[in-house]
Amino acid sequence: MPDKKSGKPTAAVELVTVDRSAITRRPNSPRMTGASVHVSLAGEIGLRIVRGDYPPGTILPNEAKWSEVFDVSRSAVREAIKMLMAKGLLSSRPKIGSWVEPKERWNLLDRDVLGWYAASPDRESFLRAVQELRHMIEPEATALAAERRTDEQMNAISQALHDMDQATSLQQRTESDARFHIAILRASGNDLLVPLGVLIESALNHLFAHVTREEDNLRYALKLHENIEKSIRLQRPNMARNAVRKALANTDEIIARWSR
User: Fold this and answer.
1) Among 60, 93, 98, 125, which is least packed by CB within 10 angstroms?
2) DSSP code at position 212
3) Which residue range or ranges hold the HTH gntR-type domain (predicted)?
4) What is the pLDDT of residues 205-228, one digit of tens each?
5) In what order do the strands lie in the sheet with 58-59?
């Protein structure tokens, strides 16, 4: 990263110019058009960064090169770079250009960044990391929800469970599943836990998009969620902790089967 006063790189990140010959457009990639060209371009560059094509410290091509490769305007390139900077993936300085920031500076709770992670070859590691975090957070968050939930919050949890049961597609089931867990985070009464909902939602969406769910497993998962809902409704924190741990263990098994 360059020093703000001198504009020269510090020892924190060694800047390396990317091989321009390696900057190519994906085969059969459609031309980016419309008002959201910069969003599509940011997605393309962001995915390349997250999957490791451009390691931290890499100086990216300039506006002219990106514009040429993707057949877009320079203004679209500038907007795309701004988006990636806002997500913590890039920094930029005059006379140096844009470079990839260290991974610890990336906003890993950003929906787009999570989506790029889940679409990368390393998505299995991503899902395991999310599960580790869920094991650390959700049992206690659910215990708090059992103690603190309001009637309105309980209704939101119960409705999500009902929608899971009535879902006619895997997408509807997954959306209701994510809504169930997010409602519990809200019912915990700790506002700092709520942003983690996007992490859970992303993990569930991408996990079940790649895994075929058998009917028996779906019924078993629903039963586990029913136990969670019941423990919160009866306001039994210890019961809630144990119910969530069993549900998380079931998801762990799904990931393990998928990775074989």
Assistant:
1) 125
2) P
3) 35-103
4) 777 765 556 667 889 999 999 999
5) 16-17, 58-59, 97-100, 90-93
